[in-house]
Amino acid sequence: MVIIDSQPLTVAIMASILFGESMGYIGADGLVLGVVGLLLLEALALAFDANNFSLWGSGEWWMLLAAQSMAIDTMMVRWVAKYSDPIMATGLLSSHGYWGSPSHGNSYS
Questions:
Q1: Helix 86-99 with 59-80: angle, nearest 10 deg
Q2: I need a surface site. Which of 44, 65, 71, 108 has the fewest CB within 10 A?
Q3: 40-70: buried (b, 16+ CB within 10 Å) or exposed (e) per residue?
Q4: Quick one: pLDDT at residue 104?
Q5: Which has the closest alpha carbon to 2: 26, 28, 38, 32?
Q6: Sign of the C-alpha dihedral, residues 51, 52, 55, 61?
Q7: Which has more pLDDT, 2 or 71?
C-alpha cells in the first residue's frame, strides 16, 4: 500500500507542534484528507484480509513504522543543522537506517 506516504503528514503535524509552523486552513484540510485517505486504504486492505491479519506480520505496519522513523529524522535535521553542515546531517541521519538494518547485518535488536 501507500502507507509510507504518511511521512509528510507526520512531518507537518510534528513541525506544527514542535516548531510552531502554521499550516493554514488549506494545509489543515489537505492534512485531514491525507489521513482519511490512508485510513480508507488500510481499512480496505484489512477488510480483504481480516482472517489472516497479524500486526507484527503486516507489511503495512512495518511501512508505517519506517515512515514515522523517516519523519523523526526529517525533524532532527533542523536541530542537527545548527551544529553541522545540513547536507552532512541529512546523510548521517539517512545512513542510520541503512547501517542499522538487519539486511546489512548490523541490527540493534
A1: 150
A2: 108
A3: eebeebeeeeeeeeeeeebebeebbeebebb
A4: 43
A5: 38
A6: negative
A7: 71
